Amino acid sequence: MPGNEWPADSIEAGISQCVAACDALVKVSEDCADACLALEGNGEVTACFLADLDCIEVSITTTRVLSWHTRNDGPTAVAILEACREACRVSITACEQMKVLHPSWQTCTMACRRLSDSCTRLLDLLAKGHG
Q1: How far apart are CA 50 and CA 93, in angstroms?
Q2: How many Cβ atoms are within 10 Å of 61's Cβ, its own excluded?
Q3: Euclidean distance between CA atoms 47 and 40, whole angstroms
Q4: Residue 123, domain member (yes or no)
Q5: CA 72 vs CA 8, 62, 78: distances in Å
Q6: What is the reported pTM?
Q7: Grouped pLDDT means (10 residues each) for the chain, 131 residues
Q8: What is the model's pLDDT at position 123?
Q9: Which domain holds residue 116?
Q10: What's the rounded Cα separation, in Å, for the pair 131 and 84?
Q11: Residue 1 domain-assigned?
């Protein structure tokens, strides 16, 4: 779905941006989780790895839920967008802790923030009923 076809504040544009952010996050989080596996295990590594896996799964589910409904403003869409934001928040926290412990750590924080912001914008649009 090209974002240029809809007004910037339309639900369809918000869905398109959110799906793109989900897709980007999946790739970056897979790389981050893979990097976790290369480190000696401790609580921070495990927390980061599991947060990455959660983000991947929630992002994939978010994409599916947003893609297969004619109307994407129902309670399921709202719940998955909220869950997606929470998974991003947890992943950001875990990755930032890894960055403190391992200064060269390449985090997925930027992708998480982008997705969280996309979810927030779409939730705002859904609440306002722009479509």
Answers
A1: 12
A2: 15
A3: 13
A4: yes
A5: 17, 11, 8
A6: 0.85
A7: 53 92 94 84 84 94 84 81 96 90 84 96 85 52
A8: 94
A9: 8-128
A10: 22
A11: no
